[in-house]
């Protein structure tokens, strides 16, 4: 399956303008419906799932609106959450049966530094999808010195080195978020120390040359406009919202920082999965079908997806803003729209498979910045990843779909759960999930073997 979606931009725009109403099989996230008839032996056919208003919740919205949940005997309510902590608490407390979740949330729980619950991630929802945006003021200071391409546009990727010596404040969405690790990775690759976490600390500002704090995704543009922060790392559509409002400029996408970056997962408690195995399998089948629909035939369905996501019960942003990143392009500034066919990947490139190595990469960043306060042997990384990422559950659902001809067999990887040596990082380093400590030793900025963080600094 190719990740090069080859979107037809003009066709997408025409389709967006062709209609306003969205014909819905799922009837939206909060419409009352008669429960679907129990099928496939599902133990709990009526479910409530949480999400944050971001475009990468698309697999859940599509599974609802295209009827994939109901095909699997499920009646699902999709409920937006105020922020990632509220969402996590809802899953742990049982108010939500599962949720669109930051990859780092269940991983942190498994590492003993997050929620005090056993969470699992049986499917990855997407790859890539984030960007880092700076205010107009910051952009005005750095843009004149940036190298230009022959067409006069700024060359990408832009190194964080251009921010050296500036005392800036950045927002990101959650301490255990890919957005946090991407921002820190980018800053460190540019020679800027983003700060370390003390044990039990959620600020991570020890030794920092840039201040990084938590801001809920939908509040990012208004917080930037107010001058409370100078930039932010967030998913779409909130980078494009800054462009639309002319208050900021995206300077780099996460694909330019770490190509194929693991992003969101579908998370739920281990207890729920153990009690409701057929329900979980039905959920996964529905989500996989939605992921395939999103990436089908070079992105032919993305225009319809944009209209669905713009509905108030989902992301609720203007279709034009959502479409600026969901249709194979990414707008960095007015007049600077570039091809970005892999900005959002939902099904291609085995995006749904929960690779142990993806979880291990996230764990290495937790250790790099002190969230994991002491050294861990390689085996600890392997065991922790296997406790939370559950490819066995993914394969059980995916193989059933392949046997029925719903998805191609070639869309399911033949793997031991680890990707090969990965490149595509902005600092030129490579990552091998089977050698986490060797990977950590490669970084110039970050904790080394034997180091811990104290209020006085690293020792």
UniProtKB/TrEMBL annotation:
GO terms for cellular component: endomembrane system. The keyword Translocase does not apply. Its main location: membrane. It is found in: Endomembrane system. InterPro entries: NrtA/CpmA_ABC-bd_dom (IPR044527), TAT_signal (IPR006311). Keywords: Cell inner membrane, Cell membrane, Membrane, Transport. The keyword Mitochondrion does not apply. Pfam families: NMT1_2. It comes from the Bacteria. PANTHER family: ALIPHATIC SULFONATES-BINDING PROTEIN-RELATED (PTHR30024), BLL4572 PROTEIN (PTHR30024:SF43). Belongs to the CmpA/NrtA family. This is Nitrate/nitrite transport system substrate-binding protein. The lineage of its organism: Bacteria, Pseudomonadati, Pseudomonadota, Alphaproteobacteria, Sphingomonadales.
């Amino acid at each position: 399956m190719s990740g090069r979606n080859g979107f037809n931009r003009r066709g997408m725009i025409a389709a967006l303008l062709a209609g306003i109403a969205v014909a819905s099989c799922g009837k939206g996230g909060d419409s009352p419906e008669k429960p679907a008839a129990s099928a496939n032996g599902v133990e709990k056919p009526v479910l409530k799932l949480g999400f944050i208003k971001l475009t990468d919740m698309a697999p859940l919205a599509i599974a609802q609106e295209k009827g994939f949940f109901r095909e699997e005997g499920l009646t699902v309510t999709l409920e937006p959450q105020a922020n990632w902590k509220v969402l996590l608490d809802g899953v742990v407390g049982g108010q939500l049966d599962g949720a669109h979740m930051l990859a780092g949330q269940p991983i942190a729980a498994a590492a003993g530094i997050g929620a005090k619950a056993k969470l699992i991630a049986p499917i990855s929802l997407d790859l890539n999808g984030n960007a880092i945006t700076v205010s107009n003021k910051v952009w005005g200071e750095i843009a004149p010195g940036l190298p230009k391409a022959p067409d006069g546009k700024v060359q990408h990727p832009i190194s964080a080195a251009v921010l050296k010596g500036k005392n800036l404040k950045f927002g990101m969405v959650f301490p255990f978020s890919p957005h946090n690790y991407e921002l820190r990775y980018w800053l460190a690759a540019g020679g800027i120390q983003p700060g370390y976490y003390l044990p039990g600390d959620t600020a991570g500002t020890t030794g920092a040359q840039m201040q990084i704090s938590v801001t809920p995704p939908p509040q990012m543009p208004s917080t930037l406009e107010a001058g409370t922060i100078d930039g932010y790392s967030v998913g779409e559509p909130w980078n494009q919202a800054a462009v639309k409002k002319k208050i900021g400029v995206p300077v780099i996408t996460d694909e330019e920082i770490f190509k194929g970056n693991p992003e969101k997962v579908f998370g739920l408690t281990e207890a729920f999965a153990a009690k409701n195995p057929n329900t979980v399998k039905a959920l996964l089948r529905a989500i996989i079908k939605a992921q395939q629909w999103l990436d089908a035939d070079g992105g032919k369905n993305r225009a319809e997806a944009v209209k669905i996501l713009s509905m108030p019960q989902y992301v609720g942003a203007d279709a034009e803003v959502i479409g600026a990143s969901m249709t194979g392009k990414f707008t960095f500034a007015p007049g600077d729209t570039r091809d970005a066919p892999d900005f959002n990947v939902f099904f291609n490139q085995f995006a749904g498979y929960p690779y142990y190595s993806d979880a291990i990469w996230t764990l290495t960043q937790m250790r790099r910045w002190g969230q994991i306060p002491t050294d861990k042997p390689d085996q600890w990384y392997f065991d922790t990843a296997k406790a939370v990422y559950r490819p066995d559950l993914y394969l059980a659902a995916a193989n059933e779909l392949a046997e029925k001809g719903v998805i191609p067999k070639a869309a399911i990887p033949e793997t031991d759960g680890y990707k090969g040596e990965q490149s595509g990082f902005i600092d030129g380093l490579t990552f091998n999930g089977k050698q986490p400590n060797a990977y950590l030793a490669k970084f110039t900025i970050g904790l080394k073997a034997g180091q811990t963080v104290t209020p006085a600094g690293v020792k």
